[in-house]
Design goal:
The protein folds into two domains: 231 residues, P-loop containing nucleotide triphosphate hydrolases (Rossmann fold, 3-Layer(aba) Sandwich), CATH 3.40.50; 107 residues, OB fold (Dihydrolipoamide Acetyltransferase, E2P). It is built from eight helices and 20 strands. By secondary structure, the chain is an alpha+beta fold. The strands form four sheets. Strands 7-8-9-3-10-11 form a six-stranded mixed beta sheet, sandwiched between helices. A five-stranded antiparallel beta sheet has the order 2-1-4-5-6, with helices on one face. Helix content is 22%, strand content 38%. Helix 3 packs across helix 4. A hairpin with a 2-residue loop joins strand 4 and strand 5. The C terminus is likely disordered. It binds adenosine-5'-diphosphate (ADP). Adenosine-5'-diphosphate (ADP) binds next to strand 2 and helix 1.
């Protein structure tokens, strides 16, 4: 069941188009990541759904109820939308204990139910024993869990998370992401997670919406976004990729790393071909590429290789092979896993 339905939502600030006619649907229990570079409109879109901003155009419904519809002058205030919010700075009340922070949003709930709910969410967020502490007496990760408990205690159908892991030490983020995802799935709460961190989006979300200049570029599962990006921007922004030139010739695409079938929707003419690092292997008898740079990354060595045309691609070597700069390595590229894009000169598609 769709619990967040945004239809042709648009917002501009003076001459800046922050969000450009966005359509977005989130199912109950689904985690959708809104991923894009800084200034791409992620926070604006989240604030429009939360009810902190009024769109210029469009309609949003939450849990089957229209909360804003510009054409029909419908508007529901943020506090009446039944949406939980978690902000990057946690926004906890410093003068209230953990238990009182969690209890804060529980209006219209009986006193005994409020107590039960606080205990339930202390348990769920593993904060039993911290009820009487104040936010400043807790670590960043614990404060983050209080913020989550406070947002979820009223049992909203929808929770909006704005860069919620930014304040945490990078080493704590993967564990915290896992814990938050588990709690959201356990409760069946739909969530929109705003992030500029592709690892966070791919690792935590059921679907990822990539946004650029206020425009949704692609919405899909993490695998679809990573392996089948529909624009060169998505290909470049999500994961590591190199691009080499190619040319469409009849039913084939010709490149210096080989020939592969032309995808049905690819126009004739020059193309750029996306090659992810992991689809390049060393293979005896392959194309000879020259080592330009070698970077030891611990579990693997990343080699930057120059192809005969001068284009560069990368190879991740997991075996302890040592090739010096200038060495010639025979390589193959797994052609079924490359993706071709029209080679447009306009700034729209530039990387
Ligand atoms: P993101 O969250 O992806 O970093 P934002 O939604 O914050 O992006 O911003 C999108 C665009 O809208 C940016 O160009 C930003 O400068 C502009 N913007 C956001 N909020 C305001 C505001 N209150 N007034 C004017 N411009 C704004």
């Amino acid at each position: 069941m769709v619990v967040i339905d945004a239809d042709k939502i648009a917002k501009r600030y003076n001459r800046t188009i922050a969000v450009k006619s966005c359509d977005l649907e989130v199912e109950s229990g689904e985690i959708l990541a809104l991923l894009g570079p800084s200034g791409s409109g992620k926070t604006t879109l989240l604030r429009l759904i939360a009810g902190f901003e009024m769109p210029d155009e469009g309609r949003i419904s939450i849990d089957g109820r229209t909360v804003v519809d510009v054409a029909n002058s419908v508007w529901v205030d943020a506090e009446d939308r039944g949406v939980g919010m978690v902000f990057q700075d946690y926004a906890l009340f410093p003068h209230l204990t953990v238990a009182k922070n969690i209890r804060f949003g529980l209006h219209g709930v009986s006193k005994s139910e409020r107590q039960t709910r606080v205990e339930e969410f202390l348990r769920l967020t593993e904060l039993v024993g911290y009820a009487d502490r104040y936010p400043h007496e807790m670590s960043g990760g614990q404060q983050q869990r209080v913020a989550l408990a406070r947002a979820l205690a009223p049992r909203p159908r929808v929770v909006l998370l704005d860069e919620p892991f930014n304040g945490l030490d990078p080493s704590l983020r993967p564990q915290m992401r896992g814990e938050v995802a588990e709690i959201l799935r356990h409760l069946g709460t739909a969530a929109i997670l705003v992030t500029h961190d592709q690892e966070e989006a791919l690792g935590m979300a059921d679907r990822v919406a990539v946004i650029r200049n206020g425009e949704l570029q692609q919405i899909g599962t993490p695998e679809e976004i990573y392996y089948s990006p529909t624009t060169a921007f998505v290909a470049n922004f999500v994961g590591q990729a190199d691009f080499i030139p190619g040319i469409v010739d009849g039913t084939e695409v010709h490149t210096e790393i080989g020939v592969f079938p032309r995808p049905p929707d690819l126009p004739a003419g020059p193309v750029k071909v996306m090659i992810r690092h992991e689809v390049v292997n060393s293979k005896p008898g392959g194309i000879l590429a020259t080592v330009e740079k070698r970077e030891f990354l611990g579990g693997e060595i990343l080699y930057r290789l120059r192809l005969p045309s001068g284009a560069t691609i990368h190879l991740e070597q997991r075996k302890p092979m040592h090739w010096r700069v200038g060495h010639q390595v025979p390589i193959e590229v797994l052609l079924p896993r490359v993706v071709a894009f029209p080679s447009v000169a306009s700034s729209e598609e530039s990387l």
